[in-house]
């Protein structure tokens, strides 16, 4: 039996195994099934040339796309307590993390970069959906707090690009606590009089939507991006009806007043630059100083103190 | 009283006691001693059972239909309760009840998710699952409290925010996010008590507070054990495993530094003795409030932020 399973079976398997096609050459569009040449797709910002479907960008592709000349400085995520609950389902969370770190080549599901957009100093925090579904645990939450702090320090605009299934349940209640923590983070950017823009990328759901992602000064969504609070399956099983066409898509959210602008990815950078440029060039009143907004609180920006 | 599945032997004893009492009240034989003996046994059994509830059993206790709900606490702990209604945008949502009231003479704003106690009231309150209008009403009440320097007391008891098409269309996520923001902006003391189930975003929306207390057998989690099991175990049948893994008990949350205090429940759970638990909750709110009222309003806000920013440095031992 041992000889059979350890020696013969692998041999047979090796014989019938598909010849290795370099899987990075061709890719099937997840929407229209068209076969796309990887290099063309990259040149087209991961948008299908046939149907216009926007595929997910890696956070580094995202940062290169948005920053002037694709140049930015990356900032490491703050170190956090690993696996605070010693969580285990059918697999240990610690092992899932190890796999994700190895696969994605970063410590968690967020990348922070600073640079300029249309010449305006900007800090971007972009999610990596490939890292455990872009889920938000302590490291991601701390990353948003740190990125917001960096923006305040540099008097830069803050742009968040969520792409996340929501809170990371393997961190239990501590992942839920990232909701108030990230709300505090963006509140401090606003108190400093700096713009906070959310670029809603596919998908933005759950606890991420129910916190910083819905609190932007301006909400820009990529075409077709899924944006919502509850998952479609949960809703269907609650109300026992099929969901309306286009439910929870960017265009639908815009129709319902939750999103300002829906853009094609090719226009994203210019849109962002235009919005930031306009927000950052209010008229100077009396003595060249920008007036304090009547809407800003009586207190200036408070420092975010990280552990 | 509805008995939970792990209370089988207690239920049997209670039935026996009832039967004996019936016989004894008919006056034929005096079996008071026997009844007293059974009562003692029930008490001991309840004490033992409830001292070592598993996380999954705590989930059942936290959701016990006879457990005192928000309205019961409001009626027992507050005077002059004046309910306020509506979000001024779309509708009134009875899943979150709230308004002005006095707590030991002090004017406050009180609000909480109400689950209802029979079919009619459960439907009226949507089983305590608020829609965006509920969270927008909460925002309104918090702003009102802030404007008139009234402390805010919230009673948390929800399976979660309502998942529905219209709730999504009207911005469930935005309503929750803004509700958290409203909590953080209020320059008045905020005290939250998780009286039953603290269900994820629907709970934190009104529980971003200076002091967060939990009842001994209450639960508070990022996702329901059933939801977690169906995702990670691919079967809701593993809900008990998920309940244990999620660390959703008051005792674990205290250790993680997420809550500030645990309110001890009477033997056999809050539903067996509402008056006792209400007195205990009242005492805890009072203590917290006295402490917070001595702070300067702007210090309160800063400390609240700091408290949440510092969270997550403690793991479980």
Q: Short summary of the structure?
A:
The complex is a heterodimer of chains A (307) and B (317). Chain A has 11 helices and 9 strands.
Q: What is the H-and-E element order of chain B?
A: HHHHEEEHHEHHEHEEHHHEHH
Determine Rg of chain A (CA atoms, Å): 22 Å
Distance between the termini of chain B: 37 Å
Distance between the termini of chain A: 56 Å
Structural notes for this entry:
The complex is a heterodimer of chains A (307) and B (317). Chain A has 307 residues and is an alpha/beta fold. Chain A has helices at residues 2-16, 38-43, 59-66, 93-104, 138-153, 172-176, 178-191, 206-209, 232-239, 250-255, 265-279; strands spanning 26-28, 35-37, 73-75, 110-117, 120-127, 157-161, 196-200, 218-222, 261-263. In chain A, the strands form two sheets. Chain A has a seven-stranded mixed beta sheet. A two-stranded antiparallel ribbon of chain A has the order 1-2. In chain A, α5 packs parallel to α7. The radius of gyration of chain A is 22 Å and the shape is globular. The N and C termini of chain A lie far apart (56 Å). Chain B has helices at 8-25, 32-51, 55-62, 70-77, 119-124, 132-147, 165-169, 172-185, 200-204, 225-233, 239-246, 250-255, 274-293, 297-309, and strands spanning 78-83, 96-103, 106-113, 152-158, 190-199, 211-215, 219-221, 261-263. Chain B is globular and about 65 Å long. In chain B, strands 1, 2, 3, 4, 5, 6, 7 and 8 form an eight-stranded mixed beta sheet that branches. In chain B, α9 (200-204) links the parallel β5 and β6 (211-215). The mean pLDDT of chain B is 94. Chains A and B meet through α5, α6, α7, α8 and α9 of A and α7, α8, α9, α10 and α11 of B.
